[in-house]
Structure formats: C-alpha cells, structure tokens
Amino acid sequence: MAIAINGTDYSLPADPRVSLLDLLRERIGLTGTKLGCNQGACGACTVILDGERVLSCLTLAVQADGRVVTTIEGLSKQGDMHPLQRAFIEHDGLQCGYCTPGQICSAVAMLGEMRRGDPSYVTADLVAGQGSTTREEIRERMSGNLCRCGAHHGIVEAIEEQLVGDAA
User: Fold this and answer.
1) Burial of 114 (0-12, 13-18, 19+ CB in 10 A)
2) Report field, pTM of the whole predicted structure over 0.90
3) Strand order in the sheet with 52-55
4) Which end of the chain is more exposed for a tag (fewer CB within 10 A), N or C?
5) Which DSSP helix (H) or strand (E) runs through 108?
6) Nearest to residue 76, comparing CAs of 118, 44, 30?
7) Helix axes 83-90, 152-167, angle to 10 degrees
8) H or E element, residue 88
9) At CA 6, angle to CA 23 and CA 152, rounded to 5?
10) Tens of pLDDT along the chain (168 residues)?
11) How far apart are CA 42 and CA 93, in angstroms?
12) Are 47 and 88 in contact (CB under 8 A)?
C-alpha cells in the first residue's frame, strides 16, 4: 500500500485515521499544504488527487492508496515555477500567502475541469468552451478557497491569464 506524492512513493500510515493533510505535513514534512480550519470550509489544505482537487483535511490518507497526490511543492518542475505560481505573483494574487498553496492547487485542478468541459453552477453556455469563461464563473469555481487578505481580484486575474494562454 503506497501513495505517489509529487512523484515519490510513500507508505500508508499504520493508523487508518490519519488525514492526508497530517501525512503530508507531519509525517512527510511537506509543509506547503496549510492547515486552516480543519473542517473543509476554507480550502487552505487543497491538494490535487488524481487530477481532482480535494481538501486534504477531510481526506483520509488510506483513501489515496494507489493514487497520485500533487502538492504545491510538486507543481514546480526542475526548479521552475508552475505558470500559475508566476501568474499569482505577477497579478498580486497573494498577500500573506497562507491560502496561496491551496488556491494554486485548486486553480490548477479547476483549469483541468474547464479543459474537460466540466460545467459549473454558473456555466452559461455548455457548448461554447473555455474561451467563454467569465469572471463570475472563475469566482464560483474558486469559492471553496477563502482569502482573508482580499487578494481575490489578483487570483481571478491570474487564472484568467492562464485561460487566455490555454485558448491561444
């Protein structure tokens, strides 16, 4: 029984009650994923599990058995930041930075949802494709990730930049 985390296999903890968040932070030392509310309400602990965003505080490590987890540390490749990490910096999509890892992981997985054509609650045109995405839709899709500093406008702009780059 193992979990692939950022390209490295790790054994599952013996205790089946260990959350994915605790495995990442306390047992493996990947502290980029943040503990926020520990109730699934803030999104600070968002990681990517098999391409889907999950709240690691509500996900048991055993639920990730045989699966692939990507954390904020795993988004950079050979020391190069992920394009969304750069976009967050360029658009001031962070202030204190506490929620940023969860915001970025959520946005990366959200862009995957949009590329697949997965609709959101506010998707106006189900056949128009991602080029028709509105700020309202980005905000709705990212609504599970809270920023107490008020960097939401920069976050939306960073995601919009990636959508424009994808459409080109």
Assistant:
1) buried
2) yes
3) 8-11, 2-5, 68-70, 46-49, 52-55
4) C
5) helix 100-116
6) 30
7) 130
8) helix 83-90
9) 85
10) 799 999 999 999 999 999 999 999 999 999 999 999 999 999 999 999 999 999 999 999 999 999 999 999 999 998 899 999 999 999 999 999 999 999 999 999 999 998 888 888 887 776 665 556 789 999 999 999 999 999 999 999 999 999 887 665
11) 17
12) no
Please answer whether residues 66 and 2 qualify as being in contact, where contact means their C-beta atoms are separated by less than 8 angstroms.
Answer: yes
Q: Which two tokens stand for residue 104?
A: 């970025």
8 A C-beta contact, residue 30 and residue 11? no
DSSP letter (8 states) at residue 157 = H
Residue of 74, 38, 30 whose CA lies nearest to 56: 38
